[in-house]
Design goal:
By secondary structure, the protein is α+β, with helices and mostly antiparallel strands. It folds into two domains: 76 residues, Orthogonal Bundle (Arc Repressor Mutant, subunit A); 81 residues, ADP-ribosylation fold. Helices cover 33% and strands 19% of the residues. It contains six helices and eleven strands. The strands form four sheets. Strands 1-3-2 form a three-stranded antiparallel beta sheet. Strands 4-7-11 form a three-stranded antiparallel beta sheet. Strand 8 and strand 9 form a beta hairpin. Helix 1 packs across helix 3. It is globular and about 50 Å long. It holds the Pfam family PTS_2-RNA. This is Probable RNA 2'-phosphotransferase. One of its GO terms (molecular function) is tRNA 2'-phosphotransferase activity.
Length: 180
């Protein structure tokens, strides 16, 4: 597969494994997993032809490790970013003292008033390093990087989870914990 084909498959997998599994008629279990053979069969009948080897290549080479196979490679799921109601089965973790969030200037007034919201997703995503937050923010324009005092949040009782691909997840970041 060339890079453009991998990107196209990755985008389609994000759609069906995070947001709309019904597009090809698959179901996700309570932890977001679906059967690999069924996924491949339904992708192929829906016009998105793929083999197991190609699927494995997309999962293994995805720069953000958006997807994961079960240990036996019989199931697959998105690592985080779901808008459908699932539980990733993650235990709360103590976050680093600071994490980062990439956004753009047009959202700053709202963030100053309401903090960071998870919007339609199950969790708000935070990055361990500024570079990753920069990439995230740049998807919508010129990035603005927010420094989040997650150590203080954790001390105040906020819960944090670490996804399989290293993205930190929480439900909300009040404005008082954000360094603009």
């Amino acid at each position: 597969m060339n890079e453009q084909q991998k990107k196209s498959v990755s985008k389609f997998l994000s759609l069906i494994l995070r947001h709309q599994p019904e597009v090809i008629g698959i179901t996700l279990d309570e932890n977001g997993w679906t059967d690999v053979d069924e996924l491949i069969a339904k992708m192929n009948t829906s016009g998105h032809r793929i083999s197991f080897d190609e699927l494995e290549e997309v999962v293994e080479t995805n720069d953000k490790q958006r997807f994961a196979f079960s240990d036996d490679y019989n199931k697959i799921r998105a690592s985080q970013g779901h808008s459908v109601n699932i539980s990733l089965g993650l235990d709360p973790q103590e976050p680093p003292e600071y994490l980062y969030h990439g956004t753009v200037a047009k959202f700053l007034d709202s963030i100053r008033k309401e903090g960071l919201q998870r919007m339609s997703r199950q969790h708000l995503h935070l990055s361990r390093d500024r570079e990753t937050a920069m990439k995230v923010g740049s998807r919508r324009g010129i990035p603005v990087i927010l420094n989040i005092n997650t150590g203080a949040m954790h001390q105040d009782g906020f819960l944090f989870y670490l996804s399989d691909n290293g993205v930190w997840l929480t439900d909300h970041v009040p404005a008082k914990y954000i360094n603009f």
